[in-house]
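Notebook entry, structure prediction.
Reason for the run: the old model in the group folder had no record of what sequence produced it. Starting over properly, with the input documented here first.
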Amino acid sequence: MLEHLDSPHRACRWVHVAGTNGKGSTCAMIERALREAGVLTGLYTSPHLVEPVERVRVLGRAVPFADFSRAFDVVHEAAERLLAAGRIDMHPTYFETMTAMAMVLFREYRVEVAVLETGMGGRLDATNVVDPELAVITPVDFDHEKFLGDTLEKIAYEKAGIIKPGRAVVSARQHAEAMQVLERTARERGARMVRAAEWRTSRLELHAFGSRFQVHAPDGTEFRVEQPLIGAHQVENALTAIAALRELGLKPAQIQKGIAAADWPGRLELVRRAPDVFLDGAHNPAGARALAGYLRRFHHGRKKWLIFGAMSDKKLEGIGGTLFPLADELIFTAPGQTRAFRPEEILERTGERRARLAPDIRAALEMAAGAAAEDLIVVTGSLYLVGEARAVLVG
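New structure, fully documented this time:
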């Protein structure tokens, strides 16, 4: 397909990012810092929260609907021609089509460096057609086990598929089993491994709406970072992004400015006050642990309303077992997706008899309308649900 489109995947430099958690946040920080350094940037992420155009950004802005629509026509018509000629045996999938569209658009906009997030895994992901200047692997954990494998080693093997011969790879701090796989793959491919864990922090100040800390690079460089993304896990994501940005040649001042300006909606995002309403796409056990840790640390003693919905490929036990005990009021609902668990299914599978059921996010938010000004409402479990809540609450 891309060859037929005159190889748009070779039209710019790429930073390719895989991992289980923190991919989007890390991509957002890398892209923003590159932009602050004067680079004409592209950013490709998934899923979208409200509109599909959010997946393809140039200089931080979603491409216009007209350009997005035209790119679809270009890719779709190419697919039809290839099908008619017998050169492909099926139309590209939704994600493959979207990936090709992004690459076509980045070429049209003359993007210099595009930050590319894998959809799932890495080895067989549609994005893995690029020869990136740098590969980045965020923490590897359990998710999509049906497709990626049921052990950390198997999942890490799939993520390691983005490591390219002779190219550097930056890895976040990893479970030992995952790190062994990543290191072995890097050795086999002659790729230089950069460990974000070798970057240290000091004078760390975590607060309810971000963090600040001193960064110590392996070469002795030090600088202060203001991190607006919420949660202790974002410190680790920031270190991974910082290590990647130094590999890309950015100066500390450019990195500082980029991290401080980073924005990533739907991940511990505060969208309303009194009561505080947070949106967080904690859709796997590691994400649930990060959210639970944040709630315990900064919102202990507050009455918590939890609105939860999940896709049917998720392990409810690993997510619900972590989050549900923290809720004083529990509401199960479903995003408007055919692959989502129905609220009744979540109730049946988890046995959470305290939970009330709402058919959709609007009904769930109406149920939570009785929350007092000092209460806390969290919408979580699925990024699709978070996107629907964001459309209602933010517009």
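Summary: The chain has two domains: 8-261, 269-393.
The old model has been moved to the deprecated folder.
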